[in-house]
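Quick question: what would this complex look like in 3D?
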Amino acid sequence: MSDHISAAADGAVALYDRTTALLVVDVQNDFALPEGGLYVSGGEQIVPLVSIEVGAAQNAGATVVYTQDWHPHDTPHFEKDGGVWPVHCVGDTWGAELHRDLVVHGPVVRKGTSGEDGYSGFSVRDPLSGAPVATQLQSLLDPDIRRLVVVGLAGDYCVKETALDGVRLGYSVEVPLALTRFVELEPGDRDRAVQEMRDAGVTVT
Ligand code: VGL
Ligand code: ZN
Protein backbone atom coordinates (compact mmCIF):
# COMPACT_ATOMS: atom_id res chain seq x y z
CA MET A 1 0.00 0.00 0.00
CA SER A 2 1.32 3.46 -0.80
CA ASP A 3 2.44 5.65 2.09
CA HIS A 4 -0.25 8.25 1.86
CA ILE A 5 -3.23 5.96 1.74
CA SER A 6 -4.35 4.74 5.13
CA ALA A 7 -6.77 1.92 5.68
CA ALA A 8 -8.81 0.81 8.64
CA ALA A 9 -7.27 -2.09 10.55
CA ASP A 10 -8.53 -5.67 10.76
CA GLY A 11 -11.52 -5.25 8.50
CA ALA A 12 -12.81 -2.28 10.47
CA VAL A 13 -14.75 0.45 8.72
CA ALA A 14 -13.28 3.56 10.35
CA LEU A 15 -9.80 4.68 11.34
CA TYR A 16 -8.84 4.90 14.99
CA ASP A 17 -6.16 6.60 17.02
CA ARG A 18 -5.76 7.89 20.57
CA THR A 19 -7.68 11.07 19.81
CA THR A 20 -10.75 9.16 18.62
CA ALA A 21 -13.58 7.66 20.63
CA LEU A 22 -15.88 4.93 19.33
CA LEU A 23 -19.39 5.41 20.76
CA VAL A 24 -21.44 2.20 20.59
CA VAL A 25 -25.06 3.25 20.95
CA ASP A 26 -27.79 0.98 22.33
CA VAL A 27 -26.79 -2.40 20.86
CA GLN A 28 -29.40 -4.02 23.11
CA ASN A 29 -31.63 -7.06 22.69
CA ASP A 30 -34.85 -5.05 22.32
CA PHE A 31 -33.40 -3.17 19.33
CA ALA A 32 -31.10 -5.77 17.82
CA LEU A 33 -33.20 -8.95 17.86
CA PRO A 34 -36.44 -9.74 15.98
CA GLU A 35 -38.05 -10.87 19.26
CA GLY A 36 -37.11 -7.57 20.91
CA GLY A 37 -39.66 -4.98 22.03
CA LEU A 38 -38.55 -2.34 19.50
CA TYR A 39 -36.73 -4.36 16.85
CA VAL A 40 -34.78 -2.25 14.38
CA SER A 41 -34.83 -4.19 11.13
CA GLY A 42 -31.41 -5.73 10.43
CA GLY A 43 -30.11 -4.75 13.86
CA GLU A 44 -28.55 -8.15 14.47
CA GLN A 45 -26.48 -7.79 11.29
CA ILE A 46 -24.36 -4.99 12.69
CA VAL A 47 -23.38 -6.77 15.92
CA PRO A 48 -20.36 -8.74 14.59
CA LEU A 49 -19.23 -5.71 12.58
CA VAL A 50 -19.43 -3.43 15.61
CA SER A 51 -17.39 -5.97 17.58
CA ILE A 52 -14.68 -5.87 14.89
CA GLU A 53 -14.76 -2.09 15.17
CA VAL A 54 -14.31 -2.31 18.96
CA GLY A 55 -11.22 -4.49 18.44
CA ALA A 56 -9.70 -2.07 15.92
CA ALA A 57 -10.41 0.89 18.21
CA GLN A 58 -8.80 -0.89 21.15
CA ASN A 59 -5.73 -1.88 19.14
CA ALA A 60 -5.24 1.74 18.13
CA GLY A 61 -5.53 3.02 21.71
CA ALA A 62 -8.87 4.70 21.05
CA THR A 63 -11.49 5.07 23.78
CA VAL A 64 -14.63 2.93 23.52
CA VAL A 65 -17.82 3.92 25.36
CA TYR A 66 -21.20 2.17 25.19
CA THR A 67 -24.68 3.51 25.83
CA GLN A 68 -27.71 1.65 27.02
CA ASP A 69 -31.32 2.84 26.78
CA TRP A 70 -32.57 2.11 30.32
CA HIS A 71 -36.20 2.88 31.10
CA PRO A 72 -38.45 2.43 34.14
CA HIS A 73 -41.61 0.31 33.67
CA ASP A 74 -43.70 3.45 33.32
CA THR A 75 -42.42 6.48 31.42
CA PRO A 76 -43.95 9.06 29.07
CA HIS A 77 -41.42 7.66 26.54
CA PHE A 78 -43.79 4.66 26.11
CA GLU A 79 -46.99 4.66 24.07
CA LYS A 80 -48.94 3.17 26.97
CA ASP A 81 -48.03 6.25 29.05
CA GLY A 82 -48.67 8.87 26.36
CA GLY A 83 -45.49 8.61 24.28
CA VAL A 84 -44.78 6.98 20.94
CA TRP A 85 -42.80 3.82 21.62
CA PRO A 86 -43.72 0.26 22.51
CA VAL A 87 -42.26 -0.84 25.84
CA HIS A 88 -38.52 -1.46 25.39
CA CYS A 89 -35.26 -1.51 27.33
CA VAL A 90 -36.84 -1.62 30.78
CA GLY A 91 -33.93 -1.61 33.22
CA ASP A 92 -32.76 -5.01 34.48
CA THR A 93 -34.76 -6.95 31.88
CA TRP A 94 -33.50 -9.15 29.03
CA GLY A 95 -34.44 -6.49 26.49
CA ALA A 96 -32.15 -3.91 28.07
CA GLU A 97 -29.11 -6.20 28.05
CA LEU A 98 -26.39 -5.57 25.51
CA HIS A 99 -26.46 -8.15 22.70
CA ARG A 100 -24.56 -11.25 23.82
CA ASP A 101 -22.19 -11.16 20.82
CA LEU A 102 -21.19 -7.54 21.36
CA VAL A 103 -17.60 -7.24 22.53
CA VAL A 104 -17.71 -4.93 25.56
CA HIS A 105 -14.48 -3.30 26.66
CA GLY A 106 -15.24 0.04 28.20
CA PRO A 107 -17.70 1.96 30.32
CA VAL A 108 -21.46 1.82 29.74
CA VAL A 109 -23.59 4.96 30.10
CA ARG A 110 -27.25 4.35 30.90
CA LYS A 111 -29.77 6.96 29.81
CA GLY A 112 -33.40 7.43 30.78
CA THR A 113 -32.94 5.68 34.13
CA SER A 114 -35.25 8.09 35.98
CA GLY A 115 -37.82 8.37 33.21
CA GLU A 116 -36.03 11.16 31.35
CA ASP A 117 -36.78 11.42 27.65
CA GLY A 118 -34.46 12.17 24.77
CA TYR A 119 -32.22 10.13 22.56
CA SER A 120 -28.69 11.49 22.76
CA GLY A 121 -26.03 9.64 24.72
CA PHE A 122 -24.76 13.03 25.89
CA SER A 123 -27.96 14.45 27.34
CA VAL A 124 -31.48 13.55 28.42
CA ARG A 125 -34.54 15.71 29.00
CA ASP A 126 -36.55 16.00 32.15
CA PRO A 127 -39.87 14.30 31.23
CA LEU A 128 -41.97 17.09 32.75
CA SER A 129 -39.98 20.31 32.27
CA GLY A 130 -38.11 19.25 29.11
CA ALA A 131 -34.91 20.72 30.59
CA PRO A 132 -31.75 19.06 29.24
CA VAL A 133 -29.52 17.22 31.71
CA ALA A 134 -26.05 15.94 30.78
CA THR A 135 -25.26 12.24 31.14
CA GLN A 136 -21.75 11.23 32.23
CA LEU A 137 -20.71 10.47 28.64
CA GLN A 138 -18.66 13.58 27.98
CA SER A 139 -16.86 13.24 31.31
CA LEU A 140 -15.64 9.81 30.15
CA LEU A 141 -13.93 11.35 27.11
CA ASP A 142 -10.39 12.54 27.69
CA PRO A 143 -9.81 16.19 26.67
CA ASP A 144 -7.39 14.96 23.96
CA ILE A 145 -10.27 13.29 22.12
CA ARG A 146 -11.22 15.29 19.03
CA ARG A 147 -13.12 12.81 16.92
CA LEU A 148 -16.09 10.52 17.50
CA VAL A 149 -17.18 7.50 15.49
CA VAL A 150 -20.83 6.85 16.36
CA VAL A 151 -22.33 3.42 15.59
CA GLY A 152 -25.24 1.28 16.77
CA LEU A 153 -29.03 1.63 17.01
CA ALA A 154 -30.97 3.38 15.86
CA GLY A 155 -29.65 5.60 13.09
CA ASP A 156 -32.67 7.89 13.03
CA TYR A 157 -32.89 8.31 16.83
CA CYS A 158 -30.14 7.69 19.33
CA VAL A 159 -27.25 7.49 16.85
CA LYS A 160 -28.38 10.66 15.09
CA GLU A 161 -28.96 12.66 18.28
CA THR A 162 -25.65 11.50 19.77
CA ALA A 163 -23.85 12.50 16.56
CA LEU A 164 -25.56 15.92 16.47
CA ASP A 165 -24.71 16.56 20.12
CA GLY A 166 -21.13 15.52 19.35
CA VAL A 167 -20.91 18.22 16.67
CA ARG A 168 -22.45 20.78 19.05
CA LEU A 169 -19.80 19.88 21.61
CA GLY A 170 -17.06 20.57 19.08
CA TYR A 171 -16.08 17.06 18.01
CA SER A 172 -15.44 15.92 14.48
CA VAL A 173 -18.08 13.20 14.06
CA GLU A 174 -18.32 10.24 11.70
CA VAL A 175 -21.28 7.84 11.29
CA PRO A 176 -20.53 4.77 9.12
CA LEU A 177 -23.83 3.55 7.67
CA ALA A 178 -22.59 -0.06 7.61
CA LEU A 179 -22.62 0.05 11.41
CA THR A 180 -26.13 1.32 12.04
CA ARG A 181 -29.77 0.50 11.15
CA PHE A 182 -32.84 2.74 11.12
CA VAL A 183 -36.29 2.46 12.75
CA GLU A 184 -38.02 4.19 9.79
CA LEU A 185 -41.21 4.89 11.73
CA GLU A 186 -42.22 6.85 8.60
CA PRO A 187 -40.88 5.98 5.14
CA GLY A 188 -38.03 8.34 4.33
CA ASP A 189 -36.90 8.76 7.95
CA ARG A 190 -33.58 7.13 7.11
CA ASP A 191 -32.79 9.54 4.29
CA ARG A 192 -33.97 12.53 6.32
CA ALA A 193 -31.79 11.50 9.26
CA VAL A 194 -28.75 11.11 6.99
CA GLN A 195 -29.41 14.53 5.47
CA GLU A 196 -29.89 16.15 8.87
CA MET A 197 -26.59 14.73 10.09
CA ARG A 198 -24.75 15.83 6.93
CA ASP A 199 -26.25 19.33 7.14
CA ALA A 200 -24.95 19.57 10.71
CA GLY A 201 -21.43 18.62 9.61
CA VAL A 202 -21.43 14.90 10.47
CA THR A 203 -19.40 12.77 8.03
CA VAL A 204 -21.82 9.99 7.08
CA THR A 205 -19.92 7.29 5.20
C1 VGL B 1 -34.15 4.62 20.67
C2 VGL B 1 -36.38 4.85 20.20
C3 VGL B 1 -36.67 4.85 21.54
C4 VGL B 1 -32.76 4.45 20.15
C5 VGL B 1 -34.42 4.63 22.01
O1 VGL B 1 -31.91 3.87 20.87
O2 VGL B 1 -32.49 4.89 19.00
N1 VGL B 1 -35.13 4.75 19.77
N2 VGL B 1 -35.68 4.75 22.44
ZN1 ZN C 1 -36.04 4.33 24.52
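Answer marked as accepted. Residues 109 and 145 are 18 Å apart (CA to CA).
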